[in-house]
Design a protein that fits this description.
The chain is of the alpha/beta class. Helices cover 24% and strands 18% of the residues. The protein has 2 domains: 341 residues, Alkaline Phosphatase, subunit A; 115 residues, 2-Layer Sandwich (Arylsulfatase, C-terminal domain). The chain has a 10-stranded mixed beta sheet, sandwiched between helices. Strand 15 and strand 16 form a beta hairpin.
Length: 497
């Protein structure tokens, strides 16, 4: 039967309405990218990852409902600078010389030769804004403005390098708050950090709604010392720490609501995640690891596995859970792929995981395991369900924790200089003691808490993971084995221009 033009057009319209509007991410021209990155949050803090949590996070839960929850997402190192260096370069932090954490006395930072994620996106025509903690070197030598961020409001290092340091307060300088390349305040009111960063993030979206943008919000909280604004203080069932997380959840809501209000949702990838596990020695002022072992500064799951949620309507499956192991170094090549931006000229370690984000596959092609460094020590490798730890020293909390924001053992600690970044120095300042771990193999499929060492039962798996480690030692080094890497690049120094 021959259709009239009107009948044919109506049929086409009905089909268009009935067909879900799913197109490939590759077909979306220059999607906006929003990366929300908290500081020292724990696996046990979010109800979507640990149902026993008493913290209310309705906006993050909405992201989970509208997007995908990633249960096996990792950061490259369980400490602030190294984690951020990996995120911004797509490299294991050791490759770019920034393992560990910088502070107000540091003379190194990200090398000018490194091409950071915002620089690459800027080349593709993106507006770039960052509102929060930088931690890749002190301005002006290593400022965000020299590394691709057109706008920045935030602090150069962690908020404990201040008069509020739980142990070393007397030796700390005033904390500078930057707006671009200018210090606009010293020792700002930390209760207002989350609100101020959020307001600037919302303004950034509104200002750049008509062009592609990359918005990076590395929250200053809940790294100790913790603060919440008057609106949230005293409102959580989890005390001040819960107040802080609930305010961050509010921040997530404000950012997402702005995206939705401006009709940008279908062209905007939103990711919420964290830099490393919780600072366990700070008791009620720190996060919790839930079922995971360890926390910040360790290569146990509680240190390197962190919550991650991604939303992109029409591209990322809603209400989905992904258990594919992925890692923060994968963001750079993935974002560059989506944005049609160039990759760095230098070698990177991350892999494009766009198909994993979109729910098209459960495997990462070309991945030869995930390796986990602490400083310059290659301590652990994960491949599939298996995770091996090589013999190394690690940190455990020094006795009972406290409720006043001081580390465990406070009053009997003998804190070493902040310049001592070795494990003993860290333990002395933050309420830990040092223990030694033997060669250990865990089946994460049945033992997510890394409690049962089964190395003696699976020599073939031990060999396989040891071989993976050996390949990384050749290129990135390993101080546990006195191995010098052949592909490590020089760190930036402030005597260079």
């Amino acid at each position: 039967m021959k259709m009239s033009p009107f009948t044919l057009s109506m049929a086409v319209l009905i089909v268009a309405i009935a067909t879900p509007n799913f197109i490939s991410a590759a077909e979306v021209a220059h999607p906006n990218i929003v990366l929300i990155f908290t500081d020292d949050m724990g696996w046990g803090d979010l109800p979507n990852f640990t149902p026993q949590s008493k913290i209310r996070t309705p906006n993050i839960e909405q992201l989970v409902t509208e997007g995908t929850k990633f249960n096996d997402f990792y950061v490259a190192q369980a400490v602030c600078t190294a984690s951020r260096a990996a995120l911004m370069t797509g490299c294991y932090a050791n490759r770019v010389g920034l393992e560990g954490a910088l502070n107000h006395t540091s003379t190194t930072g990200i090398a000018p030769e490194e091409e950071l994620l915002p620089e690459l996106l800027e080349k593709a025509g993106y507006a770039t804004g960052m509102f929060g903690k930088w931690h890749l070197g002190l301005p002006p030598f290593f400022a965000p403005s020299k590394n691709g961020f057109q706008e920045w409001l935030g602090i150069p290092y962690s908020n404990d390098n201040t008069k509020y340091h739980p142990v070393l307060a007397d030796s700390m300088p005033p904390l500078p708050l930057y707006d671009g390349d200018s210090v606009i305040e010293t020792d700002p009111d930390q209760r207002l950090f989350t609100k101020r960063l959020t307001n600037r993030a919302v303004q950034f979206i509104e200002n750049h709604k008509d062009e592609p943008f990359f918005l990076y919000v590395p929250h200053i909280m809940p790294h100790v010392p913790i603060f919440a604004s008057d609106r949230f203080q005293g409102k959580s069932a989890r005390g001040l720490y819960g107040d802080v997380i609930e305010e961050i959840d509010w921040s997530v809501g404000e950012i997402v609501k702005t995206i939705d209000r401006l009709n940008l949702s279908e062209n905007t990838l939103v990711i919420f995640t964290n830099d490393n596990g919780p600072f366990l020695s700070y008791g009620t002022h720190a996060g919790q690891s839930g079922a995971l072992r360890g926390g910040k500064l360790t290569t146990f799951e509680g240190g390197v596995r962190v919550p991650m949620v991604a939303r992109w309507p029409g591209q990322i499956p809603a209400g989905h859970t992904c258990s594919t192991p992925i890692i923060s170094i994968d963001f750079l090549p993935t974002f560059c792929h989506l944005a049609k931006a160039p990759l760095p000229r230098n070698t990177i370690d991350g892999i494009n995981i766009a198909d994993v984000l979109e729910g098209k596959t459960n495997t990462v092609e070309g991945r030869d395991g995930l390796v986990f460094y602490a400083g310059s020590e290659l301590q652990a490798v994960r491949d599939g369900q298996w995770k091996i730890h090589f013999p190394h020293k690690y940190l455990v909390v020094n006795g009972e924790t406290r409720t006043d924001g001081k580390p465990a053992g406070f009053g009997r600690l003998a804190p070493q200089s902040i310049s001592n970044s070795g494990i003993e120095g860290i333990a002395s300042r933050h309420g830990y003691v040092v223990r030694e771990l033997p060669l250990s193999l865990y089946d994460l499929g049945t033992d997510i808490g890394e409690s049962k060492n089964i190395a003696s039962d699976h020599p073939e798996i031990v060999k396989k993971l040891t071989d993976i480690a050996a390949r990384y030692r050749k290129t990135l080094g390993d101080s546990l084995q006195n191995a010098k890497g052949t592909q490590n690049r020089p760190v930036g120094r402030n005597d260079r221009t």
